[in-house]
């Protein structure tokens, strides 16, 4: 079902490239947004049109993030449930789909002026950033693979809600995010939600998984959420302090180069661990057959890339915190489909954990709404004061 839905999405994008392009930011986004209209008759409509285009881009990125993350999580669970057992392969597909983004670099190239102005020192700095983020991404993907292997997908998805709490902390330290009562409330609720799941192992359908492996899966998922949140904050910091280019090509490069590094790490891990020797046997013994094995891995890789483009696009357009908040929207969705497709149990403790996670998410969203309302009010007051000053002069 999800494979078919993702296929429809890709097919639509391939058959409607002009519609797809109109949603994406232009390669000269910053200068276009910053220009003053030349004629007075265009003055009222231009800001509204630009604001409309911004919401279209953000909506598309949200769709990519939610669809990609939900499909990738469920396909990853399908891989394990049907006989897949290679943690390195599960990690590999989370980053190996980056080549499908390469053609977009030709449609949205970096501005010529920005490329010419790049010095050797800046190139070295960018290379170091991409290398560091790629290594961080590889470690994060591996921990997520352990979590998905040893935990039911519903529990895994709910534990991922803790990334909001970690993201708030790292955003405070790295991106100057301020704590408010609603954000603190969100952190407390998400912590309680994760704690409930930690003591819920006895009621899980984990007859083939020992308590030790359950604990490993739990700790790895929590650790992966923390590393993922650090990754998002570092990406935002890189956009703000180093890259300083408000172009879609910058988003693509931030996805492609670290993914290339992470993929190389996974290839080395496959050979060093010896997992490559069992892949042929694993494919033959896969319950749904060879073709289904390959399609599951391919669509998992594609889904993660779609998710990542949406994620980085939201960081680019809004912030790392907002992108993380949107990613938690899949929390109520994934466990429901996990019950339908994978026979996961939904008991009282898990329902309570889900409600607390959703409550924490709503609290966080409300804070974002308040921040947006305050920003609009400040802009309106500033316009009134400027107008009064002009009249006085």
Explain what this protein looks like in three dimensions:
Helices cover 78% and strands 0% of the residues. The chain is mainly α. α9 packs antiparallel against α17 and α10 runs parallel beside α12. The N terminus is likely disordered.
Structural class: mainly alpha
Termini separation = 66 Å
One letter per element, helices H and strands E, the order comes to HHHHHHHHHHHHHHHHHH
- Overall radius of gyration: 22 Å
| Coarse shape | globular
Count of helical regions: 18
Q: List low-confidence stretches.
A: 1-46
- Report mean pLDDT, rounded to a whole number: 75
Strand content: under 5%
Q: Which structural traits does this protein have?
A:
18 helices, globular, 393 residues, mainly alpha, 0% strand, single chain
Summarize the structure.
The chain has 393 residues and is an all-alpha fold. The protein is 78% helix and 0% strand.
Helix and strand arrangement:
Elements: H1 2-15, H2 17-23, H3 29-34, H4 45-81, H5 87-92, H6 102-107, H7 112-117, H8 120-150, H9 153-159, H10 163-174, H11 181-198, H12 211-243, H13 248-273, H14 279-284, H15 290-317, H16 320-327, H17 333-342, H18 348-392
Helix pairs in contact: 4-15, 4-17, 8-12, 8-13, 9-17, 10-12, 10-16, 11-18, 13-15, 15-16
């Amino acid at each position: 079902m999800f494979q078919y839905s993702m296929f429809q999405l890709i097919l639509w994008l391939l058959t409607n490239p002009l519609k797809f392009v109109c949603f994406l930011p232009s390669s000269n986004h910053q200068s276009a947004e910053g220009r003053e209209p030349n004629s007075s008759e265009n003055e009222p409509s231009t800001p509204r049109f630009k604001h409309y285009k911004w919401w279209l881009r953000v909506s598309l990125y949200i769709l990519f993030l939610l669809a990609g993350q939900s499909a990738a999580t469920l396909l990853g669970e399908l891989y394990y449930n049907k006989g897949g057992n290679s943690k390195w392969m599960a990690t590999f597909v989370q980053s190996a789909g980056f080549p499908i983004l390469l053609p977009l670099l030709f449609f949205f190239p970096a501005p010529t002026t920005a490329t010419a102005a790049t010095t050797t020192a800046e190139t070295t700095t960018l290379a170091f950033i991409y290398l560091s983020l790629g290594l961080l991404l590889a470690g994060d993907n591996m921990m997520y693979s352990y979590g998905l292997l040893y935990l039911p997908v519903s529990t895994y998805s709910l534990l991922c809600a803790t990334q909001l709490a970690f993201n708030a902390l790292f955003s405070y330290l790295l991106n100057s995010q301020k704590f408010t009562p609603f954000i603190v409330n969100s952190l407390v609720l998400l912590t309680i939600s994760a704690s409930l799941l930690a003591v819920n192992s006895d009621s899980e359908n984990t007859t083939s998984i020992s308590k030790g492996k359950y604990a490993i899966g739990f700790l790895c998922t929590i650790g992966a959420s923390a590393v993922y949140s650090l990754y998002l904050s570092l990406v935002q910091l890189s956009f703000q302090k180093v890259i300083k280019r408000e172009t879609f090509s910058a988003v693509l490069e931030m996805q492609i180069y670290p993914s290339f590094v992470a993929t190389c790490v996974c290839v080395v891990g496959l050979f060093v661990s010896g997992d490559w020797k069992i892949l042929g046997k694993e494919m033959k013994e896969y319950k749904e057959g060879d073709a289904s094995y390959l399609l599951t891995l391919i669509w998992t890789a594609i889904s993660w890339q779609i998710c990542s483009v949406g994620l980085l696009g939201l960081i680019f357009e809004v912030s790392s915190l907002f992108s993380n908040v949107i990613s938690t929207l899949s929390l109520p969705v994934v466990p429901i489909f996990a019950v339908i497709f994978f026979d996961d149990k939904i008991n009282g403790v898990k329902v309570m954990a889900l409600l607390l996670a959703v409550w924490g998410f709503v609290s966080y969203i409300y804070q974002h709404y308040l921040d947006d309302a305050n920003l609009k009010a400040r802009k309106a007051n500033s316009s009134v004061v400027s107008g009064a000053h002009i009249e006085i002069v």
